[in-house]
């Protein structure tokens, strides 16, 4: 069996909030294999050094954490064919590879603008969705409810049709795979008020990585995350795309 850890779990282990054994304790099999992805390494690239510790030292610390947790078990995504492969790869090697191709980061940042700010504001204004109410719906109820709202609004597009339409408008849309579609689902769910993220200067970009972690986790038996908003959005994603990944939290439903 395999498990994928959200970035917040890695940070908590690194900070000593809890141990890897405590993470294992919430899973049914103590022999479970943990797997990491490029999303973990992309997030580390954003580290900023300071007068006390350099960016290089921060990166090396994170690489050591990743090695200790995952034992170099890596999910490699081939963007040419949108295929995932389980290989053994050191996090330093992954970092060196992804930083050689910065266009990949730029493309991901561009995807978060799939829907303009004006479109988001217009949707929120006209649909009149009760966020507290919709947050209590099951994954299937959420999609049904949003489809009804969208139809009543006169879009003539279902939830997923909006995602596919948005992809056709993106310059690289023809090359998009499931990871891009999941990013679109996360963005649209948030735009429509479902477990909406708190607005910050980096919330859109952070949500993109939440979606990416959920994508990679969809290839594993378990997705471990302490971020409630990510967990609930991931449940909808897995329902849409028929993924059997079980979602759990170390801290419980907080």
Provide a short characterization of the protein structure:
The chain is of the alpha/beta class and 254 residues long. Helices cover 54% and strands 11% of the residues. The mean pLDDT is 85.
Overall morphology: globular
Largest sheet: 6 strands, mixed
Number of helices: 13
The number of distinct structural domains comes to 1
Using only CA atoms, what is the Rg? 18 Å
Number of strand elements: 6
Q: Report the structural category.
A: alpha/beta
SSE arrangement, N to C:
EHHEHHEEHHHHHHHHEHE
Helix content: 40-55%
Q: Termini separation (Å)?
A: 26 Å
Physical arrangement of strands within the biggest beta sheet? 4-3-2-1-5-6
Description:
With 254 residues, the chain is an alpha/beta fold. The protein has one domain. Helices cover 54% and strands 11% of the residues. It has helices at 7-14, 20-25, 38-44, 55-70, 91-99, 103-111, 117-127, 131-134, 139-153, 159-169, 178-191, 203-217, 228-240; strands at 2-5, 33-37, 73-78, 83-88, 222-224, 246-248. Strands 4-3-2-1-5-6 form a 6-stranded mixed sheet, with helices on both faces. β3 and β4 (83-88) form a beta hairpin. α9 (139-153) crosses α13 (228-240). The relative contact order is 0.15. The model has no long low-confidence stretch (mean pLDDT 85).
Structural descriptors:
254 residues; alpha/beta; 6-stranded mixed sheet; 6 strands; 11% strand; globular
